[in-house]
Write a structure and sequence with these properties.
single chain; mainly alpha; 52% helix
């Protein structure tokens, strides 16, 4: 699977979820040794903004970002796990008064735009993390001494 870039033509929630799921699936399939991420710093040309004391997603290293992205994907797939021991079932809501339901469309549009924005950023971060890992593995393979059958030890 190839890491694909965000396509701005489609702004549907389902497409954004699919892109995030695909990016994190590729990330998971590519990163065979996640602990290697602890020693990798993204190249400056790959960063959208300079990384200060914390890197992707506000995490201390790429490994923490990897774990967070996997956790978010799991939450999207299976629902949010509540720490306090309650079930993952729907939260019962009180009946909203008439004046509160009048702006449901505006609330929906606001949250939809927010979800699209967050999913797009998470997808880019998953792609960046995957690409950083691939480059590190390629560099490691280039520095490794090739095995030659002509040498006897």
């Amino acid at each position: 699977m190839e890491v694909s870039e965000y396509s701005p033509e489609r702004h549907s929630l389902l497409d954004a979820i699919h892109r995030f799921n695909t990016a994190t699936t590729i990330m998971d399939e590519t990163i065979m040794v996640p602990s290697m991420l602890q020693d990798i710093t993204p190249a400056k040309e790959e960063q959208e903004e300079p990384i200060k004391s914390k890197d992707l997603l506000g995490q201390n290293n790429l490994y923490d970002s990897y774990l967070l992205l996997k956790s978010l994907k799991n939450d999207m797939k299976w629902g949010v796990h509540r720490e306090n021991g309650k079930t993952d079932g729907p939260v019962p809501e009180k009946d909203a008064p008439e004046e509160e339901t009048g702006d449901l469309v505006d609330q929906f549009q606001h949250h939809l735009r927010g979800l699209l924005s967050v999913l797009t950023k998470l997808t880019k971060k998953a792609n960046l993390l995957t690409n950083c890992y691939k480059k590190e593995v390629e560099i490691g393979n280039a520095n490794a001494r090739p095995f030659s059958s002509n040498h006897y030890y």
